[in-house]
Amino acid sequence: MKKYYLPVAFFFIWGNVVFSQTHQWQQQANYDIAVTLDDAGHTLNGIEHITYINNSPDTLRFIYIHLWMNAYKNDRTAFSEQLLINDRTDFYFSDEVDRGYINRLNFTVNNSVLITEETKDIDVIKLLLQQPLVPADSVKITTPFFVKLPYNFSRS
Question: What distance in Å separates the CA atoms of residue 149 and residue 97, rounded to the nearest whole number?
Fold first, then answer.
């Protein structure tokens, strides 16, 4: 009877490993950025071209865009809250001149302006696509931008 336990146990272990594997994917975004630095004014002025490739099995109707520099815009951001949780108050009590932001954004696809929606966080926006982005397809998104660089409170 012991002869049967090993093959049966092997089948259940092997079956769980094989059948529990799921298809994994990672979205892809390729960036081409042309930027000018004003080191005296601590600003960046540029244009960004994003080629977004949908590697998911789903058709996308929108894309979330993280606007990192808006995390430094005021003391009510997720970044500011995280620093306070970590007992750091330097950003919370910083002067406005030491804070940063990104603006002058105008997202387009084929020269047509895309609609954006705000989210609960000022450093994330929802970019509504004009055409659904099917799996394995890509879209080229372009936007100008202006960044006020913050004091070095954290990596940016």
Answer: 10
